[in-house]
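Methods: example folding runs. The two proteins below were folded one after another, and each record is reproduced exactly as written to the output file, sequence line first and structure-token line second.
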Amino acid sequence: MVERYSIVAVRKKKKGTQVAVIGTYETKERAELIRGEKKWGGSRGIPHVMKESEVAEFARQRRTGIFAPTYTPPTQEEIRVKTERQKAQEKFEREREVAKEPTE
């Protein structure tokens, strides 16, 4: 599989840092050439050339403020542990109630 390269801009704004993909190219040389030809001043941000497979991780690390995701869903392992803990607690409470009942 041929690795593609992307130009990624890191834009710093008042409410946080945003990451955007400007373009994706077949070779690193082509991406560097395009990056060198364009004027990258102002709001477009600082350009970086990187492999397409690394863009998501790079973006996750750089986003801040309102652009950063605040909610991360729980993993299957966390859900399973929480469910088991809840079932054990319910079982304990049922046994406790039975133990409180008077015996004849």
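Second run, written to the same file directly after the first:
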Amino acid sequence: MGKVLAGRYEMLKPLAAGGMAMVHLGRALGVGGFERLVAIKLMHHHISAEPEFVTMFLDEARLAARIRHPNVVPTLDVQESPDGLFLIMEYIEGASLHQILRSAGQRPGIVPLGVVLRVMLDMLAGLHCAHELVDDEGAPLSLVHRDVSPANVLLGTDGVARITDFGVARAEARLSSTRGGQLKGKLPYMPPEQLMNDSVDRRADVYAAGALMWEVLIGRRLFQADSDGATLNLIMAGPSATPRQIDPTIPAAIDEACMRALDKRREGRYATAADFSEALEQAAHASGVTIASARVVAAFVESSGAFKKMHPKELAALKKGIVEPTPATRSGRGSASGARSGPAVEQPKSAPTAPSQVTSAGSALSTPTAPERGRRYGVGIVVAVALGVAGGILVWRNLDGSTKGVATSASEPPTQASNTTPIEPTVLPAASAESTSTASAATAQPSADAVASTSASASPVGSPVRVPAGGGRRPATTATPKVPATAYDPDRL
């Protein structure tokens, strides 16, 4: 049996390590043999020991727990143990948009238009519910996510898209705002007012949703340059091209809806996420585009190469604590070879590494055998994702409100890298499985089904994604992009 926290949450397998927490697959235990799979986010000691952050985190976690919506991953519990502060979230089988884009490769139309619209409508519905949250007296709580990005949008095998990590994003943003004006978040999705350290409202999330939609339509980030400073300049200048200018198959009405969300002036954007959603529905209807059903989205997720279901025998072995080390487990580390595979992953030094937590859960990285070389196998997504941030942005302003200068800095030590990093599944005797390649330690996302071994028949990187009719795939286009020619890199923040 794995380590049990607070008397009822058993850690089965470490899934990801990030600057703020270690993510585990776990199960909630109850009387009469009751159990439920959950995701456990165990904060690192250096985070749990910081009173200011703990206070803010608990405050924001209480707010996030009030959100009840099918398109928001729920926070189920917040606890503290000798190992540190941890929270319990619903376990979702599926993949994040980050993982899907990473698996699919770089080209417009890789995600069918109907699927893009369905995901956007789901995500915006969840955001609107959170934005409308009120306290016990009926007063608005003005909750803003502040970190809407592909890593925080999960696509389940049920075909439902969900937004996650409200409390974590808010708490970290509040903490950073008290420290010399530094901003935290994923730079390519921040609106200009957030970069300038102004107050933000729900329209900041609308802007981020627009940047996310642009990226999923085109297959690469809207704002991405060789440095944070250059990326910031691109954001302040505004989009240099619309999705339709790059991919003419995108209907004009859908293109216009996306670009309004990306208006540099907050008053020029949709006032609410619900308004953005309604505009997309109307644009789809006017353009004759069928919005994908949940069944079509589910088929797309399973065929994307970013997800593989966990074998029941493997889960049973995890519950019994049966783990057989692979050769890479004994050697310590390894990574798959291939054009898109990243460097081998090491856990942050501050992450829990006691043998009882890691060895029994099978967290070691594994090196693929010879037949696997040249392949990249997809992994699923766990509900706990992207706990860290891309880096600090320090903005000085004149008294008249104009930007005097902007400097970016690596404000955090290496142990506080921005995103959670998936830890690869090990081979279990009860299931014929193969290791998956690992992503960069600073950027890769945790996987909900990283506990699941991927089969040798998984799709290689860049292979076409097949979905049932109704997905709305656009024909390939040879249009020349009119935006800066920076290769898509979903790991670069």
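Comment on the second run: The first helix runs from residue 45 to 48.
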